[in-house]
Structures are given as C-alpha cells and as structure tokens.
Amino acid sequence: MKRTLRGRTAIIGAGRSQVGRVPDRSPLLLAADATQAALADAGLAKTDIDGVLASPALAAPFHRFSVAFSEYLGIQPTFSNTLQVSGATAATQFNIAAAAIAGGLAETILIVGADSLLTGLTPDLALRALTESRDQQYEMPFGIPVANTFAMTALRHMHEYGTTAEQLAMVAVIEREHAARTPGAQMTAPITVDDVLNSGWVTTPYHKLDCSLISDGGAAFIVTSAERARALGVAKPVYILGGGECYTHEHIFLMPSLTTTGAVRSSAKAYAMAGCTPAEIDVAGVYDCFTGTVIMMLEDLGFCPKGEGGRFVADRQMTYGGAIPCNTHGGLLSFAHSGMPGSLFHFDEIVHQLRGECGERQVDGAELALVHSLGGGFATQATTILGTAATL
Amino acid sequence: MAHTAMNPDDALRKPLPAPDADSAAFWAGMREGRLLLQHCLACGHVQYYQQGICRVCGSDRLEHRAASGRGVVYSYSVVHRAPGPAFKADTPYALLLVELGEGPRMVSSLVDGDHAAVTIGMAVELVFDPVTDQVTLPRFRPVRAGS
Questions:
Q1: What's the confidence (pLDDT) of residue A158?
Q2: pTM of the complete model beyond 0.90
Q3: B79 → closest Cβ in A141, A143, A258
Q4: In chain B, what are the domain boundaries?
Q5: Which class does domain A9-122+213-391 fall in?
Q6: Assign residue A104 a region: left if phi > 0, alpha if psi is -120 to 50, beta otherwise?
Q7: Residues of chain A contacting B82 with CB distance shorter than 8 Å
Q8: pLDDT in tens, B101-145
Q9: Contact A137 B8 (CB under 8 A)
Q10: What are the tens digits of pLDDT across the range A188-213?
C-alpha cells in the first residue's frame, strides 16, 4: 500500500489574535484568542480537541508550551508536543498533525502558536534571543546573529545571478500593497523601491524595509480527519495534500550551497505526495523573513528557474495577475512577524483564500495552494500543500 | 518558566567560545597560533567544525593539521545594526564567510582592512586575535599585493 497523507486530513477551523503591538495580552492569552476564534470557526468546543501541537514562545519560555497552554485553556489532550525547528516549525505542525491523525494518535488536533516579540520580551529574554540564536563557539563570537546568515546568502545570490537591490526591494513593495488590503495588518502605508533603498542599512545587502517586522500575535487551527470533517458537515474543508521537509545544516559555514537550499527537496516531496506541479499552484505563502529569502524560495519551490527570481519579482509575477500570487496578506514583511508563529499567518491567509473568503484580496479560482516555512538561516525547510475538495 | 535570569552585564560582553570535549584541542591550538583542521585519515575529508567523527565517512581517525591561513571571501555582510550592545561600538564591521585553501568554510570578521572594500572572491589571510588570556579568535585581513 502506498503510504501518503494526501487528502486524509483537513483544516476545519482557523483563527488569529490581534497582531502588531498588543501590549496588554500575554503569549498564552494571544494563543487563547486565536484558539477560541479557530474553534468558533470550526463550530467545535474545546472538549473536541484531543491533540495539541504548539510552537514555543520566547516571551513565555515554558519547557513545554503545548502542555502549559493546554492547562491555560483547560483541556487534557491525549497527544501533545511543542515543535522547534525555528521558522520552519509552522509547516511541520501541519505535516505532523496530518501524520498523527492519519496514524490514529489523535482525531482533532489544535495547531497553535503565539508570541509577544514586540512588547513582551523583558531585557533578559531579549538578550537570550540575541545571544543564543547561533553557535556559541564558531559563530556568535564574531557578532553574527541569524539575520546576517540570511544576508550572506543574499549577497552570494546577487554575485552569482546578478540579482539587484532594486529587485530585492520589489518584494517589500508588493507585499506592502497586499497588506494595505488586509484588515489588521501591522504596516499598511504604501512604499516604493526608493523608500526601501533609503530606509537605512541593517546588514548588507539588507535595509530596514528589506527586513521583516517584529510583532505580537498568534494563530490557531483545527485539523481533523477527512471522515470527521464530512461527518461534521464542514462547508469548506481545506485538505492537507502533501508535506515535505529538509534539514541541510546547522551552521551557516556548513550550508552546502548558499543559493540553492533544502527547499528544493522539501517541496519536491510535498509536490510528489500531493500529485501536482509548481505550475498548478494557484496561490502561495512563502516564508519572507527578508526580501531576498522570497526570491531564492520562488526559485527553489519551482515557480521560476534558478537565478531568475529577481527578474520574476521585478516583473510582478508574485502578485495578482502574475504567475503565483504570494503572501497576499502582506507576509512577515508587512502583516506581522511574531517569531515562530509568523508563518502560521501564511496558513491563515491560505485557508481563507481556498475558502474564497478574501474579498478584494481574493485570488480568482484558488483551489490549490502551497505554504513554505523555513528558518535558522535556511537550515530548516518545510512545505505543506493544501487544496479544496475539488483537488481531491 | 524555564529560565533563570541572566546577568544584565552579560549584554555588554561579547560571547566567547566555551571549549568542549570536541573542541578543546582546537582552541588550545588557536592560543598557540595554529588553526587546526581535522583531516580524515580514512577518506581525506577536511573539516573545520571540530567533532569526534568524520562527517563524510564516520571514521574517528582524524588528524589535526595547521591550516595554511590563506582563503577567499565566499560571502560577507557589513553589519550596521549590531546584534546587541556588545558589538555596537564595532559597527560597521564586515562579517566574512571565508573559504579556506584546504576547502572548509568558516565564519570570521575582517581586521586591518576597509569593510567597504570587501568583495566576494577577495583573497584574505588568517590573523590570530588574542581577545583574552584564554581565547584567541581567528580573524582575516586582506592579502596585500606582494605579501
């Protein structure tokens, strides 16, 4: 028997907290806000949840966030874990939830993540976030947090393929256009390529507006078996069609290639499981911690040839009317980035796109979608492919 | 909560390597002015990151040999916004991803050179920087014509 997760589980509820600057709510309360919204969306009660898969929160550093949050919510699940592969965690939450449900470990899983990076970090926790992010012997003594690892890959991409600063900036410009149409987005004022280039250096080749936001906020999802989704009469289940992951290195100096990443293999696995090609994807959520990250991922995920990402973006292929509308909510660059939960907002947007609920942001005929999450300076890569009932 | 508080003064101190069983010989070598690479006697693989087995073939027959100290800039980034107070006074500074002549890459930073003049492919040479009595860090400077 062929082992596959294709179509065996579905997302039946999605919810998120307020995002941006939310100083009066802890990460646990943001997670509760998102969970209650997701349960209401699914038409379920908290007692219907028998599994929890969470990402950890820097501003609420429990050893076992999923367990602490279950206590906070007042549930006693029979399946629970807190996953940690940096920014890639979000897609792994969906992949593992699908596998756990298909394998019988749980029936209805809550996927949740929330953090308060903007207002909730004490100086002590902020210091930990800075100093513990990279290797203590071979990286940190030189003053290289994770942002610089992404910067070095982008400069190498510019060197190898002629990608320009203006092309990088276009990613930020387009995502800001998207955020302007997204209620609740953190940054909505229009920006130009010149605005990006004049926003001040952070670490070359990245200016301030090439970098993602720092935010408070969380998101939650209810995933269950396809059978249960049908039994519940869910109007528009969003099916998990395929998943794949790849972990190529821990240290930036052991990254096999600075310009071709593990996303090639993670997405190849997901496409194979889903039985589709990149050209068939209608809308995508692509991890966008920096502008150059998107350009490299558009290549590695197969939306354009290697080295063509800069021209692809400058040609507006990543927005409406282009080859693959990406991050239609505004992404980590303009919607919100609360750390490990940041990529959950891509999933939230994709669920609503596939349900046809995005109003003026709606991508016409969105049936098949991809979300790609990554982290750790391209060390961790995870892809999930989602689709409507029409794609089964 | 999981963590106890850190000392706030830690924010002002640059992190220093704390050698472990895998890396003690490497950091001892640095103090003596030698950057020790691990050469696998079974398959010939050369590695910078110090570990008990070869990352290619799994052999534990690893021999330390001093690096030539020559390399090229494989990539870099000039840091304008420091990762914390400890590095603020140094900005702007050039972080380097150096590809050593022996093959491995390593993270370092530029000394004795203009951060704005760094280019990918630029030839650099190793400099031993004794930052404390216990710790010497490997840094790189541009190879000057005729040197």
A1: 98
A2: yes
A3: A143
A4: 19-66, 69-147
A5: alpha beta
A6: left
A7: 143
A8: 999 999 999 999 999 999 999 999 999 999 999 999 999 999 987
A9: no
A10: 999 999 999 999 999 999 999 999 99
Q: In the predicted model, what is the mean pLDDT of chain A?
A: 96
The candidate with the shortest Cα–Cα distance to A27, out of A52, A60, A53, A75, is A60
Six-digit token string for A376 = 């750790």
| CATH number of the domain located at residue range(s) B19-66 in this protein | 2.20.28
Pairing of strands B46-47, A201-203: unpaired
Residue among B1, B5, B10 minimizing CB distance to A62: B1
What the block records as the tokens of A383 is 């892809």
- CATH T-level assignment (fold) for domain B69-147: OB fold (Dihydrolipoamide Acetyltransferase, E2P) (2.40.50)
Interhelix angle for A89-102 vs A344-354, to 10°?
Answer: 60
Q: Where do the domains of chain A lie?
A: 9-122+213-391
CA angle A381-A386-A389, nearest 5°? 170
ipTM of the complex: 0.95
Residue entry with tokens 């997760």: A5
**Cβ-Cβ contacts under 8 Å, A136 against chain B:** 15, 17-18
Other Cβ atoms within 10 Å of A199 Cβ, number: 17
Task: Residue B103: list chain A partners with CB under 8 A.
Answer: none
Nearest to B77 among A61, A125, A155 (CB): A155
